[in-house]
Amino acid sequence: MTTTAAAPEAALGVLPRADGSANYSHAGYTVTGSVNGPIEAQRRDEHAYEAHVDVVIRPAAGVGGTRERHLESILQSSLTQLILVKNFPRCLVQIVLQVEDSPENDYVNTKLVQASLNFAIMPALMQTAVLALLSAGVPMRATATATAIAVMRQEEGAPTLVVDPSTRAIETAQSAHVLAFTSHGGLLLAESEGDFTVKEWDSVYDTAREICCRSAPTKEGMEMVLDEEATRGPDMRQFLQSTMEAKVAKDLHWK
Amino acid sequence: MAPDGPLVLPGETIDPSLVPSHPKNPLRLGPGLRHIPPTDIVPTVAGQLITNPVKNSMWIEYNSNRYIPSPNDLILAQILRSTTDAYLCLITPYSAPATLPHLAFEGATKKTRPQLAPGQLVYARITPASANRHMDPELECVSATTGKADGLGPIGVVGTTSGSGSGSTGPGCVFDISLGFARRLLMARSREDGGVGVLEMLGGEEGGGLAFETAVGRNGRVWVGSESARTVVLVGRALQETDRAGLGMEGQRRLVKKLVREMK
Amino acid sequence: MPREVDPSLNEKQFVTQALEENLRLDGREFDQYRPLELTFGEQYGVADVTLGKTRILAKATAEVTVPYADRPLDGIFTIATELSPMTSPSFEVNRPTETEVLLSRLLEKTVRRSGALDTESLCLVAGQKCWSVRVDVHALSHDGNLTDAACLAVVAALRHFRKPDTSMDAGVLTVYTPAEREPVPLSWLHSPFCVTWSFFGEEGETAVLDATWLEEQVRVGSCTVSLNRHGEICQIAKLGGTPVNAVVLLQCTGVALAKVKEFDELVDRRLTEDLKRRDKGGFMAELRAENDR
What we know:
The complex is a heterotrimer.
Chain A: E1 2-3, E2 9-12, E3 20-26, E4 29-40, E5 52-58, H1 66-82, E6 91-101, H2 122-136, E7 144-152, E8 160-163, H3 167-172, E9 175-182, E10 187-194, H4 198-213, H5 222-232, H6 236-251
Parallel strand pairs in A: 1-8, 5-6
Antiparallel strand pairs in A: 2-3, 3-4, 4-6, 7-8, 7-9, 9-10
Chain B: E1 4-8, E2 28-29, E3 33-36, E4 40-43, E5 47-52, E6 57-61, E7 74-82, E8 86-90, E9 98-101, E10 121-126, E11 139-140, E12 153-155, E13 173-176, H1 179-186, H2 190-194, H3 198-203, E14 213-217, E15 221-225, H4 229-245, H5 249-262
Chain C: H1 9-20, E1 36-40, E2 46-51, E3 54-65, E4 76-81, H2 98-112, E5 123-125, E6 129-141, H3 146-160, E7 162-163, E8 166-169, E9 172-175, E10 184-185, E11 193-200, E12 206-209, H4 213-218, E13 221-227, E14 233-239, H5 246-278, H6 283-292
Parallel strand pairs in C: 4-6
Antiparallel strand pairs in C: 1-2, 2-3, 3-6, 5-6, 7-10, 8-9, 11-12, 11-13, 13-14
Helix pairs in contact in C: 2-3
GO biological process, one term (chain A): poly(A)-dependent snoRNA 3'-end processing
Domain Exoribonuclease phosphorolytic (chain A): 10-139
GO molecular function (chain A): RNA binding
């Protein structure tokens, strides 16, 4: 297993006029997200028993197309599972995700005007949305963490897994997978592209689960964790925890 | 002060030893917690768990910007328009309007009810019966038990004379603050418990005894009124800056002194 | 989408009353801008402008395409301004509001029609191949004065942008990838900026710069002057019904020139800083190390 990216970075409350907002960058992707809600839903989106979750994804350049609509619908159904929508009947929770930066492939001149978002951006979108929701204080069932994994198949021997693959790696990979887990350890989202075997998917699942759901290190386990840090890839849950800790500490400075 | 608990994230399990257990009183859950029968208590927001063993209550302390109506909260609403028997009011931007019955004012009858223009501000209470998630919230400007206004009603009334209370201070202005800061300002002992002394300082020694009135709404809006526009601006800026920068007592004192010097 | 509600009567009256006493709600002078910050992204052509609580992100991109049939010698240059619900929940995707239309027209007149970008330089093969340069303007946060911030972001993004290098060899056009050849900057002729005045009072006698969202909702009229640091005016748009005295307008353009010079300096300074940052460890850094010794 190899990983190509540095640790994720996030800032909360970056947009002063939104209810909640977050800026998240990881593996070359930078996304800013805003959350407004619960607000009044339009008649056509109104649901008598629960809040409607609206996800809008905007590419950095060019107009959004079917690709964005597809990603929106995936995120929409995942996030509806997380948000306690039943608490706010006839309301709307609006999540806008603005892509700011995505890694460029230096070896190709891409067609930019009709930009189509990359598959691998999904973890960044998901993570931004979750952070923005937490920043807005929207009641949620659980938090979630996400990651992308590419399977590179060699001529011989076992396939290697690349965590947070670069655009170039995705192009050459046999298959690419995006997985998200809730903080309870449940699988929230699984999207795959390319050819893969059940065995490969199983190992992808195990790796992703390890990255997303590793429980926070306990005091006794600390030393062991430090030793293994280098080989285990980013720890998404720990990242979420420390980001939120900083936010809460800032909010409650007067305590 | 209640003992400070750990940081929690939505969906985390709360250590059962932290849940207060009072022999007689029922356990009361405050904001940010939900009960999943039979025994699970789960946080729904990120914040700090606070427990009060005496009152047998627990809640999550956190800060946000979007106000969710809850019974008996004092809020600063804005009249949108009048229907046959009620005013429709805005509590927070983009949310569904709340209703304020024409007769929910002190001594109001069909003939004497106050005539409020769209855009007028009212200081009101969310009625205990409403704030149900399936209903739009209902407001009142009169206490149901005493029949008195108790400081509620239209504020900073301009042009009309029907308003009660603070008509003489001019229109005043509204400033947006975070919900957590509004809560701290409304605490009975805001200086000791909430760590806000900025208003006292402005009216006291540091501010040179400025004369002003405030009405703090739990919905994150503060109305500041004074005969002098300069004072209104000064108080508003002091409040917003204290909230934005998260100033402590010493910081607030320095800010007040700086602003008073600047705006001389 | 939910409607945008007008500010309360109290706010409306107070803003006007305070302005009569030479006061603004945030304590600024009438001709003072809010703190203005400009940063560039990791990629070329990304500019992030913060003006108080207003924040604009502009991104420039380029691709090779076919020129318009009636302008075979010109490249294509477009500015796309779409306000998303991120700006404010009252904006809806694909349903332009008045704010959005006015903003995009002003940017169009200021940057595109004033010839800031030399479109002829974008032509690769006459009538067959040309560059299409596009700037996407994203308003992340709206607290008034989107125009001035957006214009600054567009100009900064275009000046920061590098398009892939090309060569013509025996009628064959080659577009080099960034790995093969360092991308090249656009041919930029002049930098126009917008300065927006808001007018208050019965006869529009009070003029303030860089209005906040609340001030914008209360003002009786506004005037956007676009000019470059040489004082060459690209356009003047006077919006709102209240007539404004010609002398007041003249004074306004005078102050606008001073502000534009400040903007120009800011963009220049940030571009230089960015260049230095990108050159870290490169040729420049080596030179500096020697000088230290």
